[in-house]
Write a structure and sequence with these properties.
Layout (H helix, E strand, L loop, with lengths): L5 H4 L3 H10 L10 H15 L31 E11 L2 E10 L5 H14 L4 E11 L2 E4 L2 H13 L1 H9 L6 E10 L2 E9 L6 H19 L6 E5 L12 H6 L2 E11 H6 L5 H17 L4 E2 L3 H12 L6 H4 L2 E8 L2 E11 L11 H9 L8 H34 L16 H7 L5 H5 L3 E4 L8 H6 L8 E7 L3 E7 L3 H15 L1 H8 L10 H16 L6 E7 L4 E7 L6 E2 L12 H17 L4 H4 L12 H13 L5 H12 L1 H10 L3 E3 L8 E4 L2 E4 L6 E3 L2 H11 L5 H11 L6 H27 L7 H20 L1
Helix pairs in contact: 4-14, 6-7, 10-14, 10-18, 11-14, 18-19, 19-23, 21-27, 23-24, 23-28, 25-28, 26-28, 26-29, 28-29
C-alpha cells in the first residue's frame, strides 16, 4: 500500500490524522523511546503492515549517541560459536570458541571443521606486523611548481603538524605524511597508528584540524593554494585497493599452520597434493580476473566476526583482502593466510555496546591492549574456513576430475602396497639376492637421499607415490625403490609452478611439451643407470634392478640406500667452502672417464637419451627474462647479457649440435653428487642426455668453483677430456654449453625460485655469467 493511499483506505479520518502525525519524523538526534516508536510507525505506514518484530530491542537509545542517528531499533542476527580453535600465543596453547553472527547455513560448521583440523595439528601461530590508519586530503595549487614546493614544505613542517594532531586525539599518533604529486594536485596521505581503535573517526578529526592550520599558514606563503578537500580518495577508505594491501590500512596480520597428512585425510577428506593442485590451478584465473590477493571465502569469516563484535561493517570487503598460501611440507601441508588491511578495533565504535562488548569479552579481546590478539583470532578463524572450503572443493568436483582421469583407479597405477618381496623377485630381472633370501620386506620412511626438484614439482599435480621409498630387508639391509613420474606429469608440475609465477610463462612452457629438458625423463634415467652401471658402478649407487610397466605408469629403479656412515658432501649445494680444489678434481677425474667411455656412442645416440638438437624456445625465454627482471632478481646489465646470448642462439647452438657428444648427467651439481667411501658418487640421472661433455663441466663449476679458480678448473678438465680438439675449439664448445645452460636451466630455476626459494640461485646465476665472461675473454684474447 502506498503512503498517499493510506488516508483514503483508513477506517476513519481520525486514523488518517494519526498516521500523518506519525509520518512526521522526529529529529535524527532525538534518542527518546517516543521518537524511536515514531520512526517504526513511519515504516509501518510506508508498507501498510504491522512490523512488530522490529519494535523489540534491548538497547537504550540514550546510550547510542555517536553510534547511530534516527535510532529505530536493533536487528537480530543468529549467533553461533565455532571451535575449539587452538592458538599458540606467547609460547602457550589456548583453545578458543569464537562467536560469529551469520544467517548463512553451514558457515559455523565449516569454520569448526577447519578449526578441528588446525587444533589437531597443534594449532596456529600468528604475527601482527603493523597497525595503521590513513586520511588523504588533496591540495590544489596554481601550478605544478607550487605543488612541488608544497611537498618540501610538508616535510619541513611535519613536527608542527604532528603536534596539532595530538591536541585532538590521545590515540592517533601521526607517523608520517606521504605526498603524491599528480599535476597541480598533492594527495597527502596522513599515516597514523591508533593503538586499539580502528581510528577512522579520530584520524578524520586530526587531519581536518591539520588541514585548517596548513591553509592558514599558506596564506602568507609564496606557495599559492587554490583549495583543499579533506579526502581526495587516496586513503582507499572502505575500498579494496592494492595500496591498502601493500602498505597496510588497518592491521597487518599473518597466520600459519602445518597440517599433517593424516589430519587432512581423516578430518578434511583430502590430501596435501589435492589441495595444492587446486590452489595452483586456481591462481591464474585470479590474475585474469584482476582479483586483489588470493582467497576462497575469507569475507565469510570476517563478516561474521565483524557482525558479532561491533566492527564497521563497511570495512568488511577491504578487511577481507587476503593472501592464502599452500605449500608442501614434510608432514603434510603448510598453510598461511595473510590479512594485510584488517580494519578493526577493540575500543571505540560499536565495541562498547552490549552484545558486541560481550562477544569481545568472550574471546579476551575487549578494551585497550587487545587489538593484536583480536587480529590473530580473526586470521585463525579465516584460515580454518579456507582450509575447510578448499577441502570441500577437492572432495567433490576435484575428486571427480581425478576419477575421470583414472588417477584413483588402483588397476591403472602401481601402489606402494603392491611393492612386496614377491613383486620385486618376479619383476626385477637383476634383483638383489638379499631380497630373494628375505622372508619379507618392510617400507621404511628413513631415507638418506632427498627427493629432487623434479619429484617435488610433480607431486603438486599427481596423487601417486613418487620419488624414493626405503625398503627394509631382514632388519639390517636396506634398498631404495625410486618411482619415476611420467614426463607429462613432470611437465604439468613445472607448468603449475610456472603458472604460480606467471601465467604467460606457464602457457608458453606448455607449448614446449614435446621438446624440452624433461621429455622422456621417466625413461632416460633408467637407460642411463643401465648403461653407466655396466662399467662405472663405482661412481653411482648400486643398481639392483629396473622395472617398466607403461600400463600401470610404473617406471622403477631398485637402488642401494646410501649409508650416512659411508657418504660425504651430500646436498652441499649451498656450501661452496667444502668444494676445495682437490675435491673438485676428483669429480672431474670421474666424470671425464664416463664422458670418454660414451663419446659418440651409438648405444647412447640410438636411445631415449638422444633428444636431438639443442633447442631454445625464444618466446618462452624472452618471457622468463622479462619476469625475473621484474622481480628484481637480475640487473639491467644482466638482462642485456641474457638478450645478447638469446639473440646469438643460432651461432652457438650450431657449435654444440656439430660438436662432440657423449652421455652427460645434465643435472650435474652438488644436489646429485656426493662421495661414497671416498669415491665420487653420481645419482639422479633423470635429465641425462646425449650432449656435449662440457655441459656437465659448466653446471658443476657454477655451483662449486671460486672466482679465482675458474681457469684452473677448466684447464684441468681439458687435460682429462680426451677430446682431439684444439684449445680454441674446446673453449668455443664450453662457451656454447654455458650459454645453453644459462638459458635452458638457470633461467627456469629462477622461475621456480620465485615460488619456492632456492638458496643457490643468485650464486649460480652470477657464477655462470662469470664463466661466460672468462671464456669470451679467452676467445677474444
Amino acid at each position: 500500500m502506498k503512503i498517499n493511499e493510506i488516508s483514503t483506505n483508513s477506517a476513519s479520518e481520525q486514523e488518517a490524522k494519526v498516521v500523518k502525525q506519525k509520518l512526521s519524523a522526529p529529529s535524527r538526534f532525538d534518542y527518546s523511546e517516543a521518537a524511536r516508536l515514531n520512526r517504526i510507525a513511519i515504516l509501518e505506514a510506508q508498507c501498510g503492515e504491522n512490523l512488530d518484530s522490529i519494535q523489540i530491542t534491548d538497547l537504550d537509545g540514550l546510550n547510542l549517541k555517536g553510534n547511530i542517528e534516527s535510532y529505530a531499533g536493533s536487528i537480530s542476527i543468529p549467533m553461533g560459536i565455532c571451535g575449539p580453535l587452538k592458538i599458540n600465543e606467547k609460547g602457550e596453547k589456548e583453545d578458543l570458541y569464537i562467536p560469529i553472527a551469520t544467517s548463512e547455513g553451514a558457515l559455523v560448521s565449516s569454520i569448526t571443521r577447519g578449526a578441528l583440523a588446525v587444533s589437531l595439528s597443534g594449532g596456529f601461530k600468528a604475527k601482527v606486523l603493523r597497525k595503521r590508519m590513513y586520511r588523504a586530503p588533496v591540495f590544489t595549487f596554481d601550478d605544478i611548481d607550487h605543488a612541488d614546493e608544497f611537498i618540501s614544505w610538508l616535510e619541513d613542517n611535519f613536527d608542527t603538524i604532528k603536534s596539532i594532531t595530538k591536541k585532538y586525539s590521545n590515540f592517533a599518533d601521526l607517523k608520517k605524511i606521504k605526498p603524491v604529486l599528480i599535476g597541480r594536485n598533492v594527495h597527502a596521505k596522513f599515516i597514523y597508528e591508533c593503538a586499539d581503535a580502528s581510528g577512522q573517526n579520530m584520524t578524520t578529526v586530526c587531519t581536518w584540524q591539520s588541514c585548517l592550520w596548513i591553509k592558514e599558514e599558506l596564506l602568507t606563503s609564496k606557495i599559492k593554494l587554490v583549495e583543499f578537500f579533506l579526502e581526495g580518495n587516496g586513503s582507499s577508505d572502505k575500498k579494496v585497493s592494492v595500496g591498502s594491501a601493500m602498505q597496510t590500512r588497518g592491521t597487518y596480520v599473518t597466520a600459519e599452520c602445518v597440517v599433517p597428512e593424516k589430519v587432512l585425510k581423516r578430518i578434511l577428506k583430502t590430501s596435501s597434493t589435492d589441495l595444492i593442485n587446486l590452489y595452483l590451478r586456481s591462481l591464474p584465473i585470479t590474475r585474469l580476473e584482476g582479483m586483489t590477493g588470493y582467497n576462497v571465502n575469507v569475507a565469510n569469516a570476517v563478516a561474521a566476526i565483524f557482525a558479532s563484535t561491533g566492527q564497521d561493517l563497511a570495512c568488511i570487503h577491504e578487511s577481507s583482502t587476503a593472501v592464502l598460501n599452500f605449500e608442501k611440507h614434510e608432514k603434510g601441508l603448510y598453510v598461511s593466510l595473510t590479512l594485510p588491511s584488517l580494519v578493526i578495533g577493540t575500543v571505540g565504535g560499536g565495541t562498547g555496546l552490549g552484545h558486541y562488548k560481550d562477544c569481545l569479552k568472550s574471546i579476551g579481546c575487549a578494551g585497550a591492549g587487545k587489538v593484536e590478539r583480536f587480529a590473530k583470532i580473526i586470521a585463525g578463524a579465516a584460515l580454518s574456513l579456507e582450509l575447510s572450503t578448499m577441502s570441500a572443493i577437492c572432495g567433490g568436483q576435484f575428486a571427480y576430475a581425478h576419477d575421470k582421469l583414472g588417477r584413483n583407479n588402483p588397476k591403472d597405477q602401481l601402489k606402494t602396497k603392491d611393492i612386496t618381496k614377491e613383486f620385486i623377485n618376479e619383476n626385477f630381472t637383476d634383483q638383489s639376492t638379499l631380497v630373494k633370501e628375505s622372508e619379507s620386506i618392510e617400507h621404511d620412511h628413513k631415507i638418506n637421499i632427498e627427493n629432487g626438484i623434479i619429484t617435488e614439482a610433480t607431486s603438486r599435480v599427481v596423487n601417486k607415490s613418487l620419488g624414493f621409498t626405503s625398503l627394509e630387508i631382514n632388519k639390517e639391509d636396506k634398498i631404495i625403490l625410486k618411482s619415476k613420474p611420467l614426463d607429462t606429469d613432470v611437465i604439468a608440475g613445472f607448468a603449475a609452478i610456472a603458472g604460480f609465477a606467471d601465467s604467460d610463462i606457464r602457457r608458453k612452457f606448455i607449448k614446449t611439451i614435446h621438446n624440452n629438458e624433461f621429455t622422456k625423463c621417466h625413461i632416460r634415467e633408467i637407460e642411463a643407470y643401465r648403461m653407466v652401471s655396466k662399467d662405472f658402478s663405482r661412481y653411482m649407487p648400486e643398481l639392483h634392478g629396473t622395472y617398466i610397466n607403461a600400463q600401470k605408469e610404473a617406471y622403477l629403479l631398485l637402488l642401494e640406500n646410501l649409508n650416512f656412515s659411508q657418504i660425504e658432501l651430500m646436498n652441499t649445494q649451498g656450501c661452496l667452502e667444502l668444494w676445495i680444489s682437490s675435491t673438485r678434481e676428483l669429480i672431474f677425474d670421474a666424470i671425464s672417464k664416463i664422458h670418454q667411455n660414451f663419446a659418440n656412442s651409438q648405444e647412447v645416440s640410438e636411445s631415449s637419451l638422444n633428444l636431438g638438437k639443442v633447442n631454445i624456445d625464444k618466446d618462452l625465454t624472452k618471457s622468463i627474462i622479462t619476469y625475473i627482471r621484474a622481480q628484481n632478481y637480475i640487473s639491467a646489465k644482466s638482462e642485456e647479457k641474457l638478450e645478447e646470448v638469446l639473440n646469438t642462439f643460432e651461432q652457438w647452438s650450431k657449435i654444440i649440435n656439430e660438436g662432440p657428444k657423449t652421455l652427460t648427467h645434465n643435472d650435474f651439481n652438488p644436489r646429485n653428487i656426493c662421495f661414497k667411501n671416498g669415491r665420487p658418487c653420481f645419482y639422479d640421472w633423470e635429465l641425462s642426455r646425449y650432449n656435449s661433455p662440457y655441459r656437465d663441466l659448466v653446471e658443476f663449476m657454477s655451483f662449486t668453483t671460486p672466482s679465482g679458480e675458474i681457469a684452473n678448473d677448466i684447464n684441468y678438465y681439458f687435460s682429462k677430456d680426451g677430446l682431439e680438439l684444439s684449445k680454441q675449439e674446446k673453449l668455443e664448445n664450453m662457451l656454447s654449453c654455458a650459454n645453453e645452460y644459462l638459458l635452458n636451466r638457470v633461467l627456469f630455476y629462477y622461475v621456480g625460485h620465485s615460488v619456492n626459494e632456492y638458496e643457490f640461485m643468485p650464486h649460480i646465476f652470477n657464477k655462470t655469467l662469470e664463466i661466460i665472461s672468462y671464456l669470451e675473454g679467452q676467445l677474444n684474447a
